[in-house]
Known about the structure:
With 274 residues, the protein is mainly α. Helix content is 45%, strand content 7%. Residues 1-16 form the signal peptide.
Amino acid sequence: MQLLALALSLCAPIAALPSPHTPKPLEEPIKSPFPIHHSCNATEQRQLATALQETVTLVEHAKDHILRWGNESAIYRKYFGDRPSLTAIGAYDIIVNGNPDNILFRCDDPDGNCALDGWGGHWRGENATDETVICELSYTSRRYLSTMCAQGYTISESETNTFWAGDLLHRLYHIPAIGQGLVEHYADGYDGVLELAEGNRTEAVHDSETLQYFALEVYAYDVAVPGVGCVGGEEDHSDDQTEEPAQDDQEDDEAEDDIPDNCHTHEGGELHCV
Ligand SMILES: *[C@@H]1O[C@H](CO)[C@@H](O)[C@H](O)[C@H]1NC(C)=O
Ligand SMILES: *[C@@H]1O[C@H](CO)[C@@H](O)[C@H](O)[C@H]1NC(C)=O
Ligand SMILES: *[C@@H]1O[C@H](CO)[C@@H](O)[C@H](O)[C@H]1NC(C)=O
Ligand SMILES: *[C@@H]1O[C@H](CO)[C@@H](O)[C@H](O)[C@H]1NC(C)=O
Ligand SMILES: [Zn+2]
């Protein structure tokens, strides 16, 4: 019987067999809210598209928090003082609903800056104002929002670029089509951002770092650990929590020797070139 079956199968016309060679992939690539250059390979495209989706998720939540609570939210007042909320709402909304056509994220390294120690990416500045390069370091070190409030992360003691969504939000604000030269750097670090708000300074609502910190804090409070969040600081200090920023500082120091004249660093090793 077995022999007969074998003989029959050998005689079967080849066309009747399902082709084992090239099944069509069942899934489409992950859709990115911003264009990704073909220099990104399949895994980079997938990671970056996911991170850009998370950036939209993060700011959409921040916008919703403001629309629901406005200045009744203690977190709103902590970061924006008594400033009206329209500017911050717009700064978040343009990420969610703006025209993404004049923005490009790429994975090749046309300016050669990814070779510099500690560089996670850079805005191409005069070489291509709409373009941002994302270097390999980002793919291996930036975290996804599912780890918000875990692994020692706190709002007050960790860098905003711990999460890829925070890092990409910062990079998006440097692109003229998004930041429009209005969202800029007026404060650096958690304490600087709080100072800006305490003085009820008008810059608070269009400060790049303020917008990042607020989005991360309301996400931590509303989504990651509901009603609690992870502000950290004096109330919540442990040895674990100081380890991570120390590592970032080191990255920053190493990078500093190599910074071209047209670039600036932020606390924690974020680099931008104009
Ligand atoms: C894409 O490029 C990265 C960085 O060079 C590499 O680690 C990864 O393995 C590549 N993925 C594929 C599918 O080739
Ligand atoms: C809150 O916003 C309202 C207007 O929406 C304003 O009248 C009020 O003064 C603000 N309160 C604070 C504490 O900023
Ligand atoms: C622009 O290109 C030049 C020449 O390749 C390079 O020296 C410079 O660093 C680039 N600028 C940026 C912001 O990367
Ligand atoms: C900022 O605004 C709040 C609310 O109106 C007020 O209580 C506080 O005194 C103001 N701070 C400064 C430095 O003006
Ligand atoms: Zn910057």
